[in-house]
């Protein structure tokens, strides 16, 4: 029983570590005062809870993948770890460096990695794949939001959409 829930604790600690590191880059003046946000932008207070739910689902998905099968789980969990670390880089690029173009490209990579993990987890346990869906949905939303943010603040699509 300890082995079963001990692995859950490890996955939860991993997502907490990444979320704590990523939350160190506050939006601050640039995001709230200087950047033009899309009209459909979520309120700033929503980002924290949305990330928390997405990361919780991500940890549970990894745990179910771990429990679900032996064959292929090491590769799937390594892909998950790369996904987790890559997802934390987005906050640094957007809020820390204000490089919204690079953040959009990086978020596209995170989206591809998330779908790849979902497929890999599906082979291990159907429940693990289902648990990946909230994370994939949140990342897909952020990818579109990031593109809109970039465009509204002088990104290359601004020429075509103005």
What's a quick, concise take on this entry?
The chain has 162 residues and is mainly alpha-helical. The protein has seven helices and no strands.
How do the strands and helices of this protein lay out in sequence?
Layout lengths: L1 H22 L4 H7 L9 H25 L4 H24 L3 H25 L1 H27 L5 H4 L1
How would you characterize this protein structure?
This protein has 162 residues and is mainly α. Helices cover 83% and strands 0% of the residues. The protein has helices spanning 2-23, 28-34, 44-68, 73-96, 100-124, 126-152, 158-161.
Q: Give Rg in angstroms.
A: 17 Å
Q: Find the structural class using helix and strand composition.
A: mainly alpha
Number of helices: 7
Distance between the termini: 59 Å
Element order, helices and strands? HHHHHHH
Q: Portion of residues in helices?
A: over 70%
Strand content: under 5%
**Total number of beta strands:** 0
Can you summarize the main beta sheet? none
Identify the overall geometry. elongated
Rounded mean pLDDT is 87
Which short descriptors sum up this protein?
mainly alpha, 162 residues
């Amino acid at each position: 029983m300890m082995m079963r829930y001990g692995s859950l604790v490890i996955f939860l600690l991993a997502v907490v570590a990444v979320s704590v590191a990523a939350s160190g880059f506050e939006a601050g003046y640039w995001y709230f005062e200087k950047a033009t946000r899309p009209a459909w932008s979520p309120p700033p207070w929503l980002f924290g809870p949305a990330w928390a739910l997405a990361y919780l689902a991500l940890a549970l998905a990894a745990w179910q993948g771990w429990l679900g099968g032996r064959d292929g789980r090491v590769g799937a969990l390594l892909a998950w770890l790369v996904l987790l670390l890559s997802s934390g880089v987005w906050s640094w690029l957007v809020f820390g460096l204000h490089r919204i173009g690079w953040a959009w490209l990086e978020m596209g990579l995170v989206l591809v990695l998330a779908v790849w993990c979902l497929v890999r987890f599906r082979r291990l346990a159907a429940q693990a794949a289902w648990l990946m869906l909230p994370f994939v949905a949140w990342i897909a939303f952020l990818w579109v939001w990031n593109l809109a943010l970039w465009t509204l603040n002088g990104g290359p699509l601004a020429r075509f959409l103005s």
